[in-house]
Amino acid sequence: MRARVRDPWLRLPAPLRYAIVIAALLAIWQAYVSFSHVSALLVGSPLDVANQLWTDVANGKIPAATLHTLQTLLTGLLIGALIGFALASLAVFSSVGRDLLAVLTAVLNPLPAIAILPLAIIWFGLSDRSIIFIVTLATIWPVAINTDTGFRTISATTQMVARNLGLRGPRLVVDVLLPAAMPYILTGLKTAWAFGWRTVVAAELVFGVAG
Amino acid sequence: MTEPVIGEPLVVGAGVAIEYDGFRAVDSADFVVRRGEKFVLIGPSGCGKTTLLKAIAGFLTPTHGSIRLDGVPIGEPGPDRTVVFQDFDQLFAWRTVLDNVVYALGVAKEMRGEAARERARAMLRLVGIEAAGDKYPHQLSGGMKQRGAIARALALEPRILLMDEPFGALDAITRSQLQLDLNAIWRETGVTIVLVTHSIQEAVFLGHHVAVMSTTPARIVETVDTSAAQDMDTPEFLRLSHHLRSLLITPDSAHRSVQTAVE
Q1: Chain A residues near residue B108 by CB distance under 8 angstroms
Q2: Where are the domains of chain B?
Q3: Is A166 in a helix, a strand, or coil?
Q4: Do residues A80 and A150 share a domain?
Q5: What is the pLDDT of residue B243?
Q6: ipTM value
Q7: Given the DSSP bridges, would you call strands B209-213 and B218-225 parallel, antiparallel or unpaired?
Q8: With an 8 Å Cβ cutoff, is B222 touching chain A?
Q9: What pTM did the predictor assign?
Q10: Cβ atoms within 10 A of the Cβ of B67, count?
């Protein structure tokens, strides 16, 4: 049984509440453009934007570009996540691996991946491979750090049960460590997803290729 | 049903001392666990009884002395010495209860498919939770989780079942029920059990022999034969309980623990 909500706003269903907020923001935007006589070249009205959006969706330009961007992003994310898992696994099994992960994350995690773009262009040319490379670079660290934290917070009991069964090596990682650390891994992947988007959008702005 | 026969020594500890992080948890322990018996380690909280159990399991290596299983020094942890822990998180949370047993059979005994499922179901039947096989651990009560852990441990047909305060986190009624049921399981399987507890009642009720440990650094003060006291309403049960209490709670132990705290 749920307690009766006193706030009348909260009694509305969530999708409706968000729709109202979005509609209000659009109305303010439209009102500004309509009443301030600002040049349409500087600030487009939401109606013009919607029209253009509709045209480009209908003629297939936006869906194709979105698909392309998603492909680039997901490829980078997949490679980044696999390297991240590998680094975290290495850090669990060896003390050298742990130090390697500590140094790499300390040096490379604060660096915005987009800063590597000029270098990536020199290495890979003006191609998607450059973007995939920097998306990979942006996604390795959140995945590695969170997976590593997840592995380290697995209870001593769970670890002893696994050893008791005779589990070790890759099978220990896949069968016990990864599922036990899943909440942390999902957090890492979510962060990596956000970092990946930022990177891919920034790279495509600089690049001006399809996207 | 005939009682399992208690036979020759299976696990022999001689002068076992265990240190870790510069701390001597077990000082010098001598003990003999016979094949087919229920052997209880009892002692005050934090006295090193769990440490000793972990050494039998292979998670820790004695600094001095030796522990032998059938004459062979204990090595790495393995499914021939399965452990049931106190914690409720010992079943893998992402597998159903039945799957926990089936998975363990696959890893430790290379047993898969219908054969593994059949054996897993038989084990769940043995511990009385056959109907909960399709449930996930978080859907079970504490007592049922411990039953599941016992089923998984026994499915691997260990040479010895190690239990680290398995009923320590349960309410009194569930605990009594599980004690009774553990006796029934033992009669059915004849498995050798080493059980750690800090309950005198549990020790006398379950154990054939009870090794009494001192405060740290722990020694085994005395090993008491409790095989004649299986019925809680007998004078023998009371007598042995009193005897264990006198070994565990000595008049100067309060003084001693104050000293330890000051140090």
Answers
A1: 165-166
A2: 9-80+159-262, 92-157
A3: coil
A4: yes
A5: 94
A6: 0.88
A7: antiparallel
A8: no
A9: 0.81
A10: 21
